[in-house]
Amino acid sequence: MSTSEARKTAVVTGASSGIGAATARALAEAGYSVFVAARRAERLEALAAEIGATAVQCDITDPESVSALAQTVGGRLDVLVNNAGGALGLDPVAEANLDDWRWMYETNVLGTVSVTKALTPALIASGAGVIINVGSTAGHITYEGGGGYTAAKHALAAVTETLRLELNGQPVRITEIAPGMVKTEEFSLTRFAGDQGRADSVYAGVAEPLVAEDIADAICWVATRPSHVDIDLMVIKPVAQAAQHKVDRRG
């Protein structure tokens, strides 16, 4: 292919499951050549084989791993989806597990910053780059027991807004996608250290929580807007969730 005919490229972090995997599938379906990045190589290889992507084993909290990702991607990139992140525990602030808090900050914030720093030159080089950070409604409101996660996601929201100011004038758009209640196979299970009962209770009685494909659809829509259109923030919640503390569980 000539440069003008080459497929657009996308990087999706945290692509081994959930929203990341669904996003990789959606972008591949939309015609992107996708680099799927995550720590779990076996899952990545399976996904890459399924959708024709390039699998890159990557720990976003490890600078050398992130550098290797950037080298694999090369000098030009159209879309970066910073999806890797997660929550641990529901401890009150006064009883905080600082190791959990540290992991949440390093993964949701510092890891995102590391990947963004490494790939921004390639996004600028594309002439119409897009950075999509997967935040959360927890980045815009607090709730009891969520101090560590809400602090990290608030920080990610601040990073996203700051990045938009600092890259103003460059050919890069920056978006935060802020999902509410999304039922995936691993998010709540990870939060509760593998306790399936506690994980299931999060969605108990909710008729139709969001699923990973709902968020992937929104991410793909943002990525494919005309280059002069910047979607600053998209908050997505199921109809049953009016707020973090108000969820219809009659389903």
Describe the structure.
- The chain has 251 residues and is an alpha/beta fold.
- Helix 2 (41-51) links the parallel strand 2 (33-38) and strand 3 (54-57).
- It is globular and about 50 Å long.
- The chain is built from eight helices and nine strands.
- Helix content is 42%, strand content 17%.
Helix/strand order? EHEHEHEHEHEHHHEEE
Question: Order of strands across the biggest sheet?
Answer: 3-2-1-4-5-6-7
Low-pLDDT segments: none
Tertiary shape: globular
> What gap, in angstroms, lies between the N and C termini?
52 Å
Determine the structural class based on helices, strands and strand pairing: alpha/beta
Give the overall pLDDT as a whole number. 95
Q: Over all CA atoms, what is the radius of gyration?
A: 18 Å
- Tally of separate helices: 8
Q: Indicate the percent of residues in helices.
A: 40-55%
Largest sheet: 7 strands, parallel
Range of strand content: 15-25%
The overall strand count is 9
Topology of this protein?
Blueprint: E1 9-13, H1 18-29, E2 33-38, H2 41-51, E3 54-57, H3 63-73, E4 79-82, H4 98-126, E5 129-134, H5 147-166, E6 172-179, H6 187-191, H7 196-201, H8 212-223, E7 233-236, E8 241-243, E9 246-247
Parallel strand pairs: 1-2, 1-4, 2-3, 4-5, 5-6, 6-7
Antiparallel strand pairs: 8-9
Helix pairs in contact: 1-8, 3-4, 4-5
Key descriptive features of the protein:
single chain, 251 residues, alpha/beta, two-stranded antiparallel sheet, 8 helices
